[in-house]
Structure prediction request, 570 residues.
Amino acid sequence: MRGKWSSLRFRVLLSCVFSAVAIIFVFLIYGAYNVIKYRQDFIDTNTIVVDFYSDEFDYDVASLNDYINNILVNDNNFGLLNKRMLSEKNRIGAEYYLKNTIESKAGSLGRSGSLFYYDGIKGALRSTFSSHYETDQQHSQYRINLELKSWLETNAGIDVSAIAPMAGEQYYIRVKGRGGYYIGYMLNLSRYFSEDMKAADYQLAFTDASGAVIAQFGAPVISEDKIAQALDLKYTNGFDYIVVNAQTGIHMYLLLIKPFWQFLRFWEDSRIFMFLIVIPCISILPFILLYRYFKMILIIPTNRILGCIRGDEAPDCSRFSGGNIIELKEMEDKIGEMLKTSTELQQGIYEAHLEESRMRLQNYQLQLKPHFYLNCLKSMDAYLKNGDKAKVSAFIFQLADYLRMRFQDVPATKKLGDELELVNAYYCLQSLLLEEPFLFTVTAGAAEKEWAVPSFCIQALVENSSKYAKESGKILIVDITAKILCEADKEYLFIKITDNGKGFSKDLLKVFNSENVSMRADDSQHIGINNLRYRFKMLYGDSGKLVFYNALAGGAVVELMIPGEERGGI
Prediction:
């Protein structure tokens, strides 16, 4: 998988896809930026609107405050009413003219409201309403006056302002006076912007500082319980709606709530689809063409050259599909020539090495034949010198059996069972030659005995133990164990040969376990083991293992790992 991801084709494709995605991403980011910018512009625009409504309300309140302050200070009729010794006739006249004065002001009000005069001593109320009260509200003016009079009886003072319900609607009331005589006004908060909001698709609301709704107008964009949250957040809920507010001069907040998606409607604008969908899709087309172009001029020729190198195609790579790229064509031709030359050289080198290996293997096999025979003759000579003819006679008969098996054709490998028979014959000879016998044990099953092993591999190791491992006063024990192992889904024959002798010296272990298997002409010791190392290397290469070491309790140990492809013999 890693090789596939690192391929030229994948890299080119990834570059084209990444470039196309990057362009689409840039368009989307730019589109999102414009949407967010439009949202901010939308908020700023509606902030101006709510500020305008708030300024209009504050202007009306300030104008009415100035008006009642002027009456308190400058109106002669209100001044007469505050005199204790005023006759009833003059009082009626003063109240009449004062009512005419406040009627003129009430008539000029641009919103629903009223002005009033209240005689706290006699409990008399004179009020006049603005012309904005509709016909269906006329019958409620009497009820409003009753509730207002009741409220004034409790709350009228030198300077009082409050929000109070009158006839089921919310009013802002401002009262000023002295000596039991008061002048004031009230504004109907529940209908203050009602005329402006008849066809509006947004919502206005008066709230107190805690967010509690006093009055609201227009379309119900959000529910009343969310208005308090909207006051804290100023504008909320992402792109669903926006809320902007302004603080009025009487410590109330005026909120404007407007749905955002309804006014954005970018999905109805064909230019947006052109910008966000059509243009990015069209921009992908050049990258598709670019990928096809690179595939034709670069990927296909590269794969053809790589196929020639791997041997997927014949070395003659004269066919070329890379367009008019002169450099790639020349590269492909040169690589084809190099591959052809390399194949010829490799074939010659392989044949030369094969011939050399055959000659060396034949030489090593011939070397095996005289080596043991000389040792046997030396042993018989020693017995003859000692005059032990009986042992010599028995030895000759045992040697004859041994030589009968030994003089057979010596192949490179033989079955383990045949090798063990030869080793057993050798053991019998050695038992006759040695002053003290040595113990010889073999553990191998029928399947193991069918496995092919190098000729004389075990005999050479047992012979080495009988010659060098024997210690005076100690019976030599040689043990041979063979079993089949499975390692990395491959079968091996494992052979272990141990003795209880002195073991190998450090110098011998270093030589026997080295990877260098070159053999010196003057090396007269351990010819059998060195011969075995050479043959083992040539037969199995790095697939087989031949290891020498000493056991912890003493004695030499040799392990052979023979791969399964040699199973069945030669």
About this structure: The two ends are 41 Å apart (CA to CA). The chain is about 55% helix and 20% strand.
